């Protein structure tokens, strides 16, 4: 990202070159394994990416928020004295939701000039929304010197904003991965207790490749909320026999004893996914610690199978991309990542197979779906930061 160019756009929009804006960055994320487990109080293993959201921000003397983005046409001027109200279908809801979280803490909020710029592939399920929320939260805490707020507080504020202001019942994984990102580490998180550990994730001899189906994720939000409700139904069926509040608390062996109490076959399959996926995360962490990348890859493949057959959140594009990836000699594992219904897959590919992977998977995917896939080589990166030296 060219920071000088962003500064030029900022001054074109807001003038007054004497007052330079602060510049912040928060990454996007990719989940390695542990899908649809976060809102079930289970385990996840995501990492932060080199792509993310830049925010150029400068205080104003009044209480207006001026918002622009290099990714969207619309610019906004928002009067904070009217409170924080969700705007129909607009990107500014992500920063606005964070302002409302700070207002709820009685932080006195001045006006700001803001320019956002993201290089996370659009609608790819790599958490561009959590990245915007976290860059906003981090910038406000830092600029307004709210030292009482730790990173975990900012993460919780971003989650509350997504749940209450945006209206998506997502779990905490995305914000946590963005907020706690660390170069060359995956984040092993218990979403119930928020205990976490950074696990070294250095793929010597392999690359982590993100492949984008470029399929629009239509209806994804309503299907997502439907899965959240199905998991609640599963808990309601299990709870009278076995006192749990979340599927993540149910062990793999326990589930096999109790599964018949879930009468609805579909709901039972949803629970089977969550509970088996939870166990796969534990096994995946153990295999990383033993540096057993082949076992790690086998767990990724098993995760995809369960998301396809038990959780039913894949679809023809994701399944084709994964099948074609798994066919390539040198691919140790491949699975969908994120919410599903489109978006991206993640694959571990031996260095010498990367070119062939991109060429053949791209061709075969195009032949079978008519769509062009995009490929990105992931670099596992750090969490939010202020950019002081802007020669980036
Ligand atoms: C989306 C949500 C996350 C998580 C994943 C599925 O990315 O935002 O909270 O539930 O789907 O694992």
Unique ligands: alpha-D-galactopyranose
Helical coverage, percent range? 40-55%
The CATH architecture assignment of the domain at 3-200 and 381-386 turns out to be: 2-Layer Sandwich
Task: Report the biggest beta sheet as strand number plus sense, adding barrel if it closes.
Answer: 8 strands, mixed
Write down the overall mean pLDDT: 95
Determine the number of helices (DSSP H or I, runs of at least 4 residues).
11
Radius of gyration over C-alpha positions, nearest whole angstrom? 21 Å
CATH topology of the domain at 3-200 and 381-386: Ribosomal Protein S5, domain 2
Distance between the termini: 7 Å
Write down how many β-strands occur, each being a DSSP E stretch of 2 or more residues. 12
Descriptive notes:
It is a single chain. The chain is an alpha+beta fold. The chain has a domain at 3-200 and 381-386: Ribosomal Protein S5, domain 2. Helices cover 41% and strands 21% of the residues. The strands form two sheets. Strands 1, 2, 3, 4, 5, 6, 7 and 12 form an eight-stranded mixed β-sheet that branches. Strands 9-10-8-11 form a four-stranded antiparallel β-sheet. α2 crosses α3 (128-143), α4 runs antiparallel to α5 and α10 (316-327) runs antiparallel to α11 (354-369). It starts with a helix and ends in a 6-residue tail after the last strand. The mean pLDDT is 95. Alpha-D-galactopyranose (GLA) binds at residues 31, 35-36, 38-39, 170-171, 173-174, 338-339.
């Amino acid at each position: 990202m060219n920071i000088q160019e962003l500064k030029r756009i900022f001054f074109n929009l807001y003038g007054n070159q004497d007052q330079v804006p602060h510049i912040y960055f928060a990454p996007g994320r990719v989940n390695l394994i542990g899908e649809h487990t976060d809102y079930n109080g289970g385990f996840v293993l995501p990492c932060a990416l080199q792509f993310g959201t830049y925010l150029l921000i400068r205080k104003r003397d009044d209480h207006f928020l001026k918002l622009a983005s290099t990714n969207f046409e619309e610019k906004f001027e928002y009067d904070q004295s009217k409170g924080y109200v969700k705007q129909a279908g607009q990107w500014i809801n992500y920063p606005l939701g964070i302002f409302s979280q700070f207002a709820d803490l009685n932080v006195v909020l001045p006006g700001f000039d803001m320019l956002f710029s993201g290089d996370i592939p659009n609608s790819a399920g790599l958490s561009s929304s959590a990245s915007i929320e976290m860059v906003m939260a981090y910038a406000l805490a830092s600029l307004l010197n709210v030292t009482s707020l730790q990173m975990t507080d900012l993460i919780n504020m971003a989650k509350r904003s997504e749940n209450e202001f945006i209206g998506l019942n997502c779990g905490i994984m995305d914000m946590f991965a963005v907020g706690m990102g660390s170069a060359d580490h995956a984040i092993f998180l218990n979403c119930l207790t928020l205990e976490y550990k950074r696990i070294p994730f250095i793929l010597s001899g392999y690359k982590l490749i993100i492949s984008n189906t470029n399929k629009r994720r239509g209806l994804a939000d309503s299907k997502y909320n439907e899965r959240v409700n199905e998991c609640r139904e599963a808990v309601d069926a299990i709870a009278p026999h076995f006192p749990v509040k979340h599927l993540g608390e149910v062990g793999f062996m326990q589930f096999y004893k109790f599964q018949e109490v879930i009468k609805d076959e579909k709901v039972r399959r949803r629970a089977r996914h969550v509970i088996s996926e939870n166990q796969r995360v534990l096994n995946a962490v153990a295999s990383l610690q033993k540096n057993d990348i082949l076992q790690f890859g086998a767990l990724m493949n098993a995760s995809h199978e369960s998301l396809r057959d038990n959780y039913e959140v894949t679809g023809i594009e994701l399944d084709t991309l994964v099948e074609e990836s798994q066919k390539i000699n040198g691919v140790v594992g491949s699975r969908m990542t994120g919410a599903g219904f489109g978006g991206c897959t993640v694959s571990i590919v031996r260095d010498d197979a990367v070119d062939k992977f991109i060429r053949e998977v791209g061709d075969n995917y195009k032949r079978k779906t008519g769509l062009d896939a995009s490929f990105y080589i992931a670099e596992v990166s750090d969490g939010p930061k202020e950019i002081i030296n802007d020669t980036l």
